[in-house]
Amino acid sequence: MGAPADHLAEAFHGLADHLRFLQALGVKELPLSREYLAGPGGGLRRLEQAIEGCTRCKLCRGRRTIVFGSGPAEAGLMLIGEGPGEEEDRQGKPFVGRAGQLLTRMLESVGISRDEVYITNIVKCRPPGNRNPEPDEIAACAPFLDGQLAAIRPRIVCALGTFAAQTLLRTREPIGKLRGRVHAFGAIPLIPTFHPAFLLRNPGPQYRRLAWEDMKLLRREYDRARGG
Ligand code: URA
Prior knowledge:
Blueprint: H1 4-24, H2 39-51, E1 77-81, H3 86-91, H4 98-108, E2 118-121, H5 135-152, E3 156-160, H6 161-169, H7 175-178, E4 183-185, E5 188-193, H8 196-201, H9 205-225
Parallel strand pairs: 1-2, 1-3, 3-5
Antiparallel strand pairs: 4-5
Helix pairs in contact: 1-5, 2-5
The chain binds uracil.
């Protein structure tokens, strides 16, 4: 644990991040009610209210539901995918299709339960035909992901697949080059790995073995970040 001054500096940074997020959403006044000030859970609830019925980008035209995210607001580990697929769009929850089932098994293989992590995506609405999200869609959704990060303040982030890793790390490097090591995502360690849908499409042992290495790295860094 750091000195009180470190905690204070951290709190100010968190507050500044959150105010920038609200500014990006066009908020001009702040209600200082008890609910508003209620920790990470309150922050997430406000964000979910703010995204209701969102029409900030063209993805709103084809979606059934907005897939905001799932998991505890106090999660130490946050996983970020690309965007909801068909099943997620139907159920309103991230990673609930076949790729999601594989993700659950990948986490469990290193003793991490899905119940303890927060899962979300770069964009919260399904891109038609599961195409990659486009730059205007990513930009429109960015304040929500930033808000989730500011509310949860995870100790470690895992980027699932090329698209999420490249977007978060602002790089064009392929996932094969990005994976296998820890990157700095602001002050948060970020571990990229293959998207579980990619692993389903490429079932050979070679990618599975690398994904397993990534999961072990994630476990080590997660323990370290929690002071274990
Ligand atoms: N693929 C993603 O990137 N996100 C989901 O939620 C489901 C599949």
